[in-house]
Design goal:
Elements lengths: L1 E5 L2 E4 L4 E8 L7 E7 L6 E6 L6 E3 L7 E6 L4 E6 L8 E8 L13 E2 L3 E6 L1
Parallel strand pairs: 2-11
Antiparallel strand pairs: 1-3, 3-8, 4-5, 4-9, 5-6, 7-8, 9-10, 9-11
């Protein structure tokens, strides 16, 4: 599975962005997908995850109610809709794929990673 994240950019606090992650390979429809982020000087942290059907999602407390993860298996794409953005959301955002059925939050449990897309939220 190869992953290509896009959609990052500069936005003012309170604004919105939608990240996309396009996947290649026939295993996408059977993969758990996740979004992670890494701010300068900090460790990579979990943001959101979604199971293969889209019927199960889980979010970090810091983004719950503001971010929404979704997927379109026909397009081999997973999305992260980010609303009410805050300066502390500034980070490089990575999508990741896990060959399994259970959603997980640990970066080490994901098998494939995209290259990351930078989100900068100005105050």
């Amino acid at each position: 599975v190869q992953l290509q994240a896009s959609g990052g950019g500069l936005v003012q606090a309170g604004g919105s962005l939608r990240l996309s992650c396009a996947a290649s390979g026939r295993t996408f429809g059977r993969s758990v997908m996740g979004w992670f982020r890494q701010a300068p000087g900090k460790e990579r942290e979990f943001v959101a995850t979604i199971n293969w059907s889209g019927g199960s999602t889980y979010y970090a407390d810091s983004v719950k109610g503001r971010f929404t993860i979704s997927r379109d298996n026909a397009k081999n794409t997973v999305y992260l809709q980010m609303n009410s953005l805050k300066p502390e959301d500034t980070a490089v955002y990575y999508c990741a794929a896990r060959l399994g059925s259970s959603t997980t939050v640990g970066p080490s449990t994901y098998d494939y990673w995209g290259q990351g897309t930078l989100v900068t939220v100005s105050s």
